Amino acid sequence: MSNLDPSFLLTTTGAATHPGLVRPINEDRFLVLPESGVWAIADGMGGHEAGALASQTVVAALKSISVPVSATDLLAQLEDRIIRADAQLKEIARQHGHNAVIGSTVAVLLLFNRHYACVWSGDSRLYLVRAARIVQISRDHTEVQELIDQGVLHPDEAKTWPRRNVVTRALGAYDAPELDLDQGSIEPGDVFVICSDGLTSHVADDEILAHTVNEHPQAASDALLALALERGGVDNITVVIVRCSGSSPQEGTAS
Question: Which distant-in-sequence residues (6+ apart) come within 8 Å of 62 by Cβ?
């Protein structure tokens, strides 16, 4: 990312979330903060409503990111909030006692002028839709993904693997927060999709593509949520979709 005028971007956002058809509590939380160039999803874990508290803690920390003066500033603010949230989650777990582990995945999209950064920990995903193609930017931090990478498990087998939902990274759950970063340049018409695993458990990448190519981000978000619910909705489901286009400095940034 580079220090450029943030007014280059005009963004349109859509978002939808639902507890699903099995779980009584929605432990997903999302953030839409276009004025600061931040969009995010957190998927909490911990049981007994602690998962909802975990994801809310992460989103509350990210919500305090102020309007950046540069891309470097935006990344630095994100790092600071992630460290804070991780510490808060560990303190909450300590107060719960009994070796409690209270954690949350996080997937964050940062936009500053002509550049994006995707930052994640866990199995909430980030996709880029460009030129009628979809690419998964994030790589799941899960046991099953590690087995696939090692050649032990075929991707088709992973869909029914008993421990497919076990994450290997999450805020609050390990000694120190570990995140991956991918960044690049934005092209007008780019669409970013952020989602929890409750969506991708039921909806394939090509179906996400089909809804995001031409539909308004809110219509696409609603349609993808409905599709996941139609297919069982076994987990909490959250999706945030951000469409980017060029703008003049006078137009500013919209959400």
Answer: 31, 33, 38, 40, 78, 81, 85, 106, 108
Nearest to 86, CA basis, from 129, 36, 128, 121: 121
Number of domains in the chain: 1
Report the alpha-carbon distance of residue 135 to residue 163 in Å, rounded. 25
CATH number assigned to the domain comprising residue 196: 3.60.40.10
Q: Residue 228 is encoded by which pair of tokens?
A: 């996941």
Instruction: Find out whether 88 and 61 touch, Cβ atoms under 8 Å.
Output: yes
- The reply to whether 36 falls in a domain is yes
DSSP state of 6: G
- Check: CB of residue 89 under 8 Å from CB of residue 54: yes
Whether the full predicted model's pTM is greater than 0.70, yes or no, is yes
Residue pLDDT, tens place only, 229-252: 999 999 999 999 999 986 544 333
- Counting Cα atoms < 13 Å in the Cβ hemisphere of 159 gives 7
For the beta sheet containing 180-185, the strands, ordered from the edge strand earlier in sequence to the opposite edge, are 28-33, 38-45, 103-112, 115-121, 180-185
* Per-residue CA distances from 25 to 19, 167, 237 (Å): 6, 20, 11
Q: Give the C-alpha distances (Å, rounded to integers) separating 170 from 26, 72, 137, 221.
A: 18, 24, 18, 25
